[in-house]
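USER:
I wish I could look at a protein chain and see how it folds. I am handing you a single protein, as its sequence and its fold in token form. As I understand it, each token names a local backbone shape. I hope you can help me see how the letters and the tokens relate. The protein I mean follows directly.
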Amino acid sequence: MKQLLVALMMGVFSFSFAQKGPTVIKTKFSKEALSQILEDEEGKSITIQDILNKNKGKIIVIDFWAGWCRDCLKALPAVDLLEKNNPDVHFVYLSLERSREGFNRSLERFDKKDKDNYWFSTGWKNNFNDEIELNWIPRFMVVDQQSAIAKYYAISPEDPEIQTTITQLKK
């Protein structure tokens, strides 16, 4: 009986902390979300709109991650494989590290210095993350060549819909 109670409690505990999917699948970003300011590796401010404008005409995969996130670290090899298998797709890494020092340390530690990296210096709660209902990481999005959202919600780089979406956008 004691084992059954423990199993039930663990199931309830696990379920209550599971990633909840979005209530609405969005296909574009709001003005408020696009005006969200991040910092690049040098500490310069940049908006989501600036990042999208810089990559206009390209398919973009956005990876929300942090070096303290165990699930993010487990996903790193699959992210690297997805990027390797799609050399014509631009990958943008949005970090949810708790500090600039943590951001810089994670880029070094996980060999991401040569990637397109940005940090939410404002923290987890901000206009962009609120707009996309970010409640867990890792999280992945695919943005099309016109900066519209093509794949709104994926929690693993191995989600087959990511590759399917990329393949469809290439046509």
Summary: The radius of gyration is 17 Å. The longest helix spans residues 70-85. Helices lie at 2-16, 31-34, 48-54, 70-85, 100-109, 127-131, 160-170.
